[in-house]
Amino acid sequence: MFLQLIVSGISIGSIYALVALAMVIIYKTSEVPNFAQGEMAMLSTFVAFMLLASFGQPFVISFAGALVFAVVLGVFLEFVFLRRAKDPNVLSLILITLGFEMMIYGVASWKWGAEQQSFPFPVSDFDIVNLGPAVVSYLNIVTLLVTLFLMFILFLFFRYTKVGIAMKATQQNMLAARINGIRANRILSITWGMSSLIGAVAGMMLAPIATLDPNLMLDPLLKGFASAVLGGMTTLVGSALGGYILGIIETLFGGYISLQFKSIVAFLIIVLVLCFKPSGLFAKHYVRRV
Amino acid sequence: MKSAGPASVKAAMVLLFNERSAYRGEKNQDQEMDIKRDYYEDIQLLDSKVLWFWFLMLIAALITFPFVASNYYIYMANYMAINVLVTVGLNILVGYTGQISLGHAGFFAIGAFFTVLLMGKLSFPFLVALVISGILAALFGFILGLPALRLEGPYLAIATLGFGMAITQVIGRWELFGGRMGIQAPPLKLFGFYPITTDRGLYFIIVTITLLLTWAARNLMKTKIGRAFIAIRDSDIAAQTMGVNLTYYKTLAFAISAFYAGIAGGLMAFMLGFINPSSFNFILSIYFLAFVIVGGVGTIFGSIMGGMVMTWLILMLDKVQDLTYIGDILMTISERWMSVTGIHNVSSIILGLIIVLIVVFEPLGLYGFWIRTKIYWKAWPF
Predict the structure, then answer these.
(1) Most buried residue among A60, A203, B229, B371 by CB atoms closer than 10 A?
(2) Is the pTM of this model over 0.90?
(3) Are B346 and A106 an interchain contact pair (Cβ–Cβ within 8 Å)?
(4) Which of A102, A226, A278 sits opposite B286 (nearest CB)?
(5) Domain A2-276 falls in which CATH fold?
């Protein structure tokens, strides 16, 4: 029982970790939590669904198409709206992302209605592997592998590529980065594209387990935030670990305490972490200049 | 007559009338000038006879309105008044104190469900149940305000978002609150015997409460508390250095704001007649925030405009396919590329676009637009 719960916790935690990663990438460069993250991922997942079901494309092309769409969507939103904001403060940036959230939600519900679709996926959730007393489905394994792979790629990206280092510089001090010849605006666009891409992966991994409808990512969005807060909004690895921790805590809570109130665990974690260690478990404490 | 009333009554009097109205004895002789010459002139609510005149006209118009308007417009007015109430409350938090809340639908739900439960299960009278629910919402606001002491900006937004979602889910799972199905509002009786069955009857209750609470908010912002809020918004560290007790005032701002949302929620329960938890979702919280932004951050008048205009827009967009021209065009688009059943979601797109455009192009909202128009015409033709 316990082992099984841990295993399911890790597999749902992978999704949270992906959402958290997507969130943190944007937060790291522009200090704005992207509330449209979930809806962007949802729309990309629907694009994959449309390519699969309506146009009859094979999986590879559909998924690649959805990922390309996700990048374009992220860059588009940043370029068309976010960049135009005059003298943006945190409140107005948050509001802009909330506006995106509503717009994308509206588009998806208009196009696909509120009816629930089932998302076809090459790997089944029903083929299982026995791991001692616990069982894992192939889908869980694939999700875990994809998440770890993306984390590894991101680590390399931020460590060794010029763009990754430029992103870090932009986050630390945008003005100084500009002076040193970094095009901060372009960096922000790239950030949004990347984040949207990772979110889309999370959406496509989640869709086969859940049912595909416009509310697909509403709950994972909050969980992603909770993971990011838990691990620290400024560390990539920390926030991904936060996702796994949240997934495990949540399934344990559901298994041993109350399945009904499982969904408030995320909120409790947010509040507790923010009260006692606002910078998160794995991040350095942030200092605010007056 | 003994004037030793309970402290709460006194506090309410101060809110509804004025801080130290006794000091208003020495008034300025020339009223033509727009200059405020002393402090007590500045804190007056209606500082000229012209304003008093228009205020009385407004009251008269509000009283006659339900007798000339059709039922749909009375319904719309009720809806507007409720949304204005939430907007004013949220603006105290967002606009005046500078804290963000994405969880106001949670307070709204607490107000709605507890009013109905207190009346239905414990048979409290309506006004008592409403006030208790408001206070209960304020209590939750106080609790949510505690983490807000250590948080700012994005973190606070996330915490309040989590709160709003958690409240809805807890209410949705709890049998006491009717579970997923929701509960029916009991028949409404004012003062225990006067039954209210029509929208018109409800109109008078809702509009009176909204008017009183808006008035109170306007007055509150001119007292020490309001100035403390504004000081916190402008810089909390500077405010603290000047002796503003952050713990007290931040939690107070949350509590007051939640109180307004709770009262509005209680009224909403009776306007709809039936409430279920899924209608108090995250989107509703965004709507509330949108009302504040569209109206204008940090102005009561802006909140009134924002609440009314946006409510009107939402009601219009609910039946978007019936609009002339636009409806037809949208229908064609729906049939060709989108889906016909989902056409009402156009409202979501348009509202989202409005939020983004307002923030990008007119951060002061409708109020900023109004001020500029006023200044333009004051100096016209120069």
Answers:
(1) A203
(2) no
(3) yes
(4) A102
(5) ABC transporter involved in vitamin B12 uptake, BtuC (1.10.3470)
